[in-house]
Amino acid sequence: MISRRRFTQAVAAGVAGSALTGATAAAAVPELRGGAGEHTSLGLIKRVKAGVLDAAYAEFGPRHGQPVVLLHGWPYDPHSFVDVAPLLAEAGYRVIVPFLRGYGPTRFRSAKTFRNGQQSAVALDIVALMDALEIEQAVLGGFDWGARTVGCIAALWPERCKAIVSVSGYLITSLEKNLEPLPPAAELGWWYQYYFSTERGVLGYRENWRAFNELIWKTVSPLWQYDAATYGRTAASFENPDHVAIVIHNYRWRLSLAEGERQYDRYERVLQAGPAIGVPAITIGSDFDGAAADGTGYRDKFTGPYEHRVFAGIGHNVPQEAPQAFAQAVIDADRL
Length: 336
Description:
Blueprint: H1 4-13, E1 24-25, H2 29-32, E2 45-50, E3 53-60, E4 67-71, H3 84-90, E5 94-98, E6 107-108, H4 119-132, E7 138-142, H5 145-156, E8 161-167, H6 175-178, H7 184-188, H8 191-196, H9 199-220, H10 228-235, H11 243-254, H12 265-272, E9 281-286, E10 306-311, H13 318-321, H14 323-334
Parallel strand pairs: 1-10, 4-5, 4-7, 7-8, 8-9, 9-10
Antiparallel strand pairs: 2-3, 3-5, 3-6
Helix pairs in contact: 3-14, 4-5
């Protein structure tokens, strides 16, 4: 989810949920939510061998269209883009929406592969998927883990990014900064990360993942009126046999409570330095980001053509809550 550092800024400002300034706000909530829930199916799910994964993905649009790769986060899945992808396909884009490691039909090719959730490992999964699909360069878009992955790819392999769309802006993890304590009110917001650091938390998530993840949905998108079927379609992805291991390792690694793998050290050295992103970029802030929604806290991290947009009244699952506005951001990023 959003960086702990940014959440601290929002809490310290004490204005979460108030009117946002310093950026061009999007239209009112009813217009932003237009088209949400129009589609329910991802269509035929395809598979391809990509690096350490037998990767599952949905594909929309013409085979020779400009590629777009859309990445979900936790606790979500490709259904976050179920309304976005058809809009982009109608505009002529070839849209690829993968299930990340630990989600849905995606599987590890070897039982011996460590179930690693660190940021560079997930980023390499997507680069391997692009290689397997013979996609040299794409417009990349994502939120939550997906936005972090988009940022990592843009920093490490900018030649693979024609442009990016990143919800909550710059989310590349700094392990050093994540060791710094936060104000008590901010720490409260990360209860689930501390829960996951205990064996009780592992057992609790394994036994109660369905209710646990819906609690997260309701907490971070309080104005989103989804139905049980909408959550159920995504919840099916959490039945992946590696889901719990990947989620637990992701959050423990971020808090330096779990080791990564040495083979990713060279990538992490670059990422831990907080590299700037020079590819064309549109960042999106929402109500979930609180005072940080205006984007000023990470503006200097984007050095290429750049725009920032605020989706007032929208929660954390931006593409599913505001699909038309998110799709337009992808199209506009492609034109930067």
